[in-house]
């Protein structure tokens, strides 16, 4: 990596005029911009006025010493990142250890060798340059990720509306062709299922990207959870019908929660779609709503393919991952459950699941009841 040393400022803290002139001459010939101070007062004055990239610190500074001055520098947030190289006559193990303990990164013994001094200084400058490159690349990567997420959000938002309209059309057609036996009813039902799944994917993507970017608006309100579940079940019934799956509802009435209605619909839709997806044909899915002390509890129970213990552990790690970076690192799996986990926990609730391979799964959540 080619480094322009003229971009770096070095402060020499040295009370010997001869040593100071010698050091300045050596460093300025290499292109460094060099500033100097004879004591701690001049050093702090320069630090307040200039950007300093590295300090060459004489250990013996008249009445004070470089160790104590370095400790002072490291106690100030604005200066603690500046590397300090000690220049000293002292080279006992105790003095070397004391220098590193005070915050120094290296040391050069007097009388110093010019080549050794330059190599030690340039080594620290290369570290600084590498850190600056990493920091810049990290910021560029963050910006690229944010731009990607913004694009996802725009695409999901723009597609969500027409897909939602298409879903409504298929819902109407499904009802109107339900009694027909000419083959169109099955096609309409399949189209309705495809539209429902597309809408769910776009809805999850939109919520995930907006949440990652801090753009998601929460509008919590008092909801009758029973009524909300019945509405979601009605829209997903054609999807379950494709596999001849019976939705068995066991819902306790009168349970009210304080929650964002659109997000709660997404949560319920994701749990039901997953249950249908992993259930066998002609099976039954049980959906329960009941009160457990101050909590409203929702459970979706199927008798489908189930999951092994290993898959369950992997899924738990996947959906509970924190941060704005996508948790969907394994072929896009789990986005719906990540939405469920994330928003249930952000509303003070709890998400849970258990499963047994080849026997089925139970997914659910609990949220606080109103006035409890």
TrEMBL record:
Matching InterPro entries: CheY-like_superfamily (IPR011006), HATPase_C_sf (IPR036890), HATPase_dom (IPR003594), His_kinase_dom (IPR005467), HisK_dim/P_sf (IPR036097), Sig_transdc_His_kin-like_C (IPR004358), Sig_transdc_resp-reg_receiver (IPR001789)
Keyword entries, A-Z: Phosphoprotein
Location of the Histidine kinase domain: 154-371
EC number(s) from the headed UniProt entry: 2.7.13.3
4-aspartylphosphate carried by residues: 58
Reaction equation(s) it catalyzes: ATP + protein L-histidine = ADP + protein N-phospho-L-histidine
Domain Response regulatory intervals: 9-125
Pfam families hit by this protein: HATPase_c, Response_reg
Database matches in PANTHER family: HYBRID SIGNAL TRANSDUCTION HISTIDINE KINASE C (PTHR43547:SF2), TWO-COMPONENT HISTIDINE KINASE (PTHR43547)
Identification of the protein by name: histidine kinase
Species of the source: Sphingobacterium anhuiense
